[in-house]
């Protein structure tokens, strides 16, 4: 799990900074959002001061209805609890009392143009990804026919070369060499890059290439849900590879299970096409169709 600053949040979500500039370096490490309700009536028991505080039209209208003394007491107490920041929605005005208290205490006061539900949705999506549990693995991540794939294997097995072939077929690169996996839901993983390797693919004998410059912006994608884990392995003449039956294995990342298949590599095998077929086949299986089951039914019906 990472942590981000209020300044970073304001820049990413294009929030206006109204006050409390000295609090912009405050760290956000909690992805929950709180809309103070009881607190505005003076009840602060169990106040979650570790969360971002969001004031929409309902809250601001209520504050405007209070006397100056009541408003100063309640807002003053809320801000003195040092929440990470306060966000006002709908570009609301008449916030002099908030600006004063935020400047006095050093709590950042931010303002969004959008309505409250839109701001909450943006915050949930952004914070959920930024603060999610994450790990880095040695792999290549691509999106093939809308299916997010991890391609793993020993160094030199051909992961990046396979990714290049897939890009030339119109698919998208997410990350090469180092893939950042983030758990954004109990059963959902996304794969992304680490910023430094964004757009780049490294090829032995050629060196580093920028896929967006060579193949256009459509050759790169920021992130993808991880649906399938593919391991490329050197062909073993002593090992039996069943071309009819396939037992699906699972591999676990951050406590999320992902279907795993092994593709043996040897000269003459079109690995990129096999990966495409694996992605298409995974899609069919999600729809309840398995080729082996249909094959068995045909045999039984003969």
Sum this structure up briefly.
By secondary structure, the chain is of the alpha/beta class.
Question: What do these coordinates show?
Answer:
The protein is of the alpha/beta class and 302 residues long. The chain has 2 domains: 4-130, HprK N-terminal domain-like (Udp-n-acetylmuramoylalanyl-d-glutamate--2,6- Diaminopimelate Ligase, Chain: A, domain 1, 3-Layer(aba) Sandwich), CATH 3.40.1390; 133-299, Rossmann fold. The chain has 9 helices and 19 strands. It has helices at 6-12, 57-65, 68-80, 96-105, 116-130, 159-168, 211-215, 271-286, 291-301, and strands at 4-5, 16-19, 27-28, 33-34, 52-55, 85-88, 108-111, 133-138, 140-144, 147-153, 172-175, 178-185, 188-192, 200-203, 207-210, 223-225, 228-234, 249-253, 256-265. Strands 11-9-10-17-19-18 form a 6-stranded mixed sheet. A hairpin with a 2-residue loop joins β9 (140-144) and β10 (147-153). α3 (68-80) packs parallel to α4 (96-105) and α6 (159-168) crosses α8. It starts with a strand and ends with a helix.
Q: Descriptors for this entry?
A:
single chain; 32% helix; alpha/beta; 9 helices; Udp-n-acetylmuramoylalanyl-d-glutamate--2,6- Diaminopimelate Ligase, Chain: A, domain 1; 2 domains; Rossmann fold; elongated; 302 residues; 30% strand
Figure out the total of helices.
Answer: 9
Radius of gyration over C-alpha positions, nearest whole angstrom: 26 Å
Reading off the top of the CATH hierarchy, the class of the largest domain is best stated as Alpha Beta
Instruction: Tell me the series of helices and strands, N- to C-terminal.
Output: EHEEEEHHEHEHEEEHEEEEEHEEEEHH
Query: Overall 3D geometry?
Result: elongated
Cα-to-Cα separation, first versus last residue: 57 Å
What's the oligomerization state?
single chain
CATH architecture of the largest domain: 3-Layer(aba) Sandwich
**Topology, number of strands:** 19
Largest sheet: 6 strands, mixed
CATH fold node name of the largest domain: Rossmann fold
Low-confidence spans: pLDDT under 50, at least 5 residues? none
Q: What portion of residues is helical?
A: 25-40%
Biggest sheet strand order reads: 11-9-10-17-19-18
CATH homologous superfamily title of the largest domain? P-loop containing nucleotide triphosphate hydrolases
Strand content: 25-35%
